[in-house]
Amino acid sequence: MTESKKKQSRGIYLLPNLFTTAGLFSGFYAIIAAIRGDFESAAIAIFIAMIMDGLDGRIARMTNTQSAFGAEYDSLADMVSFCLAPALVIYLFSLLGMGKLGWMVAFIYAACGALRLARFNTQIGIEDKRYFQGLPSPAAAACVAGWVWASTSNGVDPSLMTAVALPLTFACGILMVSTVRYHSFKELDLHGKVPFVVMLLMVLVFAFIAIDPPLILFGIFVIYALSGPILTLVKLRQHRSDRQQDK
Fold it and tell me: Domains in the chain, please, with CATH?
C-alpha cells in the first residue's frame, strides 16, 4: 500500500459525519436548554437531532461514504441525542418533584435506550430490514420530547404533565428493549415514480401537521409506539386461530 493510500484510509468522510455532529450538537443543546428551563427549545432540538440522524445515513449511502467510523460515531451520537437528552429533559421538566421515583424512571429510560442501541449494533446484517426489534430510540425520544413540547405550547396543567410523563417515559424505555417488532419503512421506494395523488396526500399531511405541530407530532409518534404491541397481539390472535383450525 502506498503512502497516499495509507493517509486516505486513515481519514474520515466529512459530509455524513457533519450531519452526525449536527445531531450530536442538537442533543447536547437540548440538555443545556433544559438546564436553563427552556423546555420548548430542548424538545425542538431533539426533533432536529432526529432529522439529522435520518439524513446522515441516507447521505452516506447516496454518496457511497459509509464507514465503520461513521457507524460507531452515529451510535455514540444517538446515545446522547435519544437516550441521555430525552431522559434529562423529561426529568427536569416534570419528574424532578417526584424524588427517587422520578430519577429512577429517567435512568431506566436512558439505560434501556443504551441497551437498545447496543443490541441494534450487534444485529446489523442479520436482522430483517423490514422491521425493527423494539421501539427505535429516535421514535421513543420523539414521544418523550413531543409530550414536553406539546405541554409547554398548549399550557397543560402541571399535575397532568407529571401524570402522563411518568408512565410515558417508563413505557418508552421498556418498549425499546422489548422484542416487539416495528415497521422500519425501509422497503419504501423513494427513487421510483408515484401517482399524482400521493403528492396531494403529502401536501395534506404537511397542512395537517401545521395546525398544531407539537400536539400532532406527539400523537403520530405515540400511535407508532402503540402500533408494535397492537400488531403483535393481532398476529398472536391470528396464530392461535390458525392452530385451532388445524386441530
Answer: 9-246 (1.20.120.1760)
